Fold these 2 entries.
Entry 1:
Amino acid sequence: MPNRAHPVTLSWDVETMTEKLKPVRFEVFRGETVMLAPRMLHLGQPVNFPPDLVATLWWRHKAPAGWWQEPALATGRGVLVAPFRPDMDNGDNTYEFFIQAKNGEGINYRAFGTLVMVGSPGPNPNQLPLPTKTIDFDGMQVLNPGMAPWLLDSPELQSGLQKLLSTFPAGTPRSMDEINLALDGVLTFLQHLKKEKS
C-alpha cells in the first residue's frame, strides 16, 4: 500500500498519423493536481520523444498573455506526462491544452483537448475566517407588535430581570443553583404571559 497520495492520471492513446483530430475532454476538480498522460502511437506502435523536449501549453482566458507553458516529460514507451496543478488554474471554467512534443522531425500537437473545472473545496480550504454576521437592531422593524412592545415594557418582566441581574454583583461569582433559580423565575413568568395572550 502506498504511503502517499498520487496525482490523478488521465491517460489516452494518440495516433500521430491520423488525419482526423481527436480532442479529449476531462473533468477536473478545482484544486487537485492531475497528470495528463497521452501515449503517442505511430500506426499502433509507441513513438518516443526526447525527455526534455515536451511541454504543456494551456490557454488562460482571464490572463492577458493567452497561451502559457509548463515543462512536461517523455517517460518512454510513447507516454508523455504533463502536469496540471492548482497554481496553473486562474479561475476559468475550462482550459484548452496542447502537449507539445518535439523530436528531430518536428513538433507534434496531436495530444490536445479541454479541461473542465468542477467545483470543490479547492487546494486550501478555509484560508479565510468565516464571515461574522452582525445584527443592526436600529434597522430592524418589529413585525409582531402584539407581543414585543408589551413584553419589554412589562413591570413584572423588568422586576424578574432585575432579580436575575442582582445575582451577578461585580466581582462576586454566584453558585449555579442561584443562577438557575433566577432563570427559572423569568422563564415561568414568560410562559405565564404567553398563556394569557393566547
Entry 2:
Amino acid sequence: MGCWAGLLLVLAVAANDNELSDSVKPKKMAGIETARLYGNLNKYAYYYTDIMIGAPKPQLTSVIIDTGSRLLGFPCRNCVHCGKHMDPAFDVARSASARWLHCPANCSNADRCHSGVCTYEETYSEGSSIAGFWFDDVIQLGGAKSRNAPIHAKLGCHVKENRLFYSQRANGIMGLAPTSSPLNGASTTVLQEWFKDDEHVRANVFGICLATWGGRLTIGGYDPSYNKPNASSPGVVRGHHVAVAVASCRVQFARMRRVDDVTTPHGISCCGASYAIRRRRESR
C-alpha cells in the first residue's frame, strides 16, 4: 500500500456527546493539525469543516469530510451550475499561488482534458455528481484561528453540481480515503500531502471525534481529552477505503442482528453506517 501502510484512523465519541464547541479551546499539540467539525447527522446528514485556500489572502470555504472518496473540491466563481452555499465561491483570480493543472503532464489516469486543463467528473453512490477543473494551490486545515501550516494540494474547481451537491449548505467535499500509488497513475490525495509535512505532522494518523453536534478532525495524531475512556477504535485500510468495525447498531432502540452489512464507510460522508441504517429502515 505504499505510504498508506502506516495509516491509522481513530474514530471516537466525544466525552460531551451533545456538542464539541469552541467554549473549550483545543490546545495546540506539536505534530498535530486540528480543526473544528460542524454538522449533525439528523439535520445535515454530514459533518463538515473549514479550510483556507490561496495566498496572499486565503479564502474560506466549507467542505464535507468523507472517508469514502478522495477528491477535494468546491465551487469556483463563475460556476455554470452550482448551488447557493454558506461561503462565497472560490475566486481563483484572487489567489497568486493558484496554478491550473495543464494536460497531459499533470493529469491522472482518471482525468480528462478540456481547453488544455485537466478536468474531473465524479458521481457518488446516491446519484449526486460534480465536475470541474483541477488546479494546485496552498491550503490550510480549519479557519484562520486554527493556526495550521499551509501545504500545496491538488484541488477541484467545480463548474457543475447536481442533486445533493447543489442543495447542500456546505460548499464542497474533502475526501480522506486512501488511493493507489501515484506510480500507477493515481493522484496524491490531500491527506497524503499532509502526511508528507514532517515538520508539522508527526505520524500517518488522522482522528475524527464526533459529538451529536460537531466534533474535531485531527491529522498527525488525536487528542484523547475529547474522548470517553477507551472509546477510540483503530481504522484499517481496505482497498480504497478506511474501514472501522461496528460492534453493534440500534435503530429506534432495536438492535440490528447483522452489523456486517454496515461495517465499512464508503462513498458517503464520514460514517457510511448511518446511511445504510437509514436505507434499511426506509425499505421496511
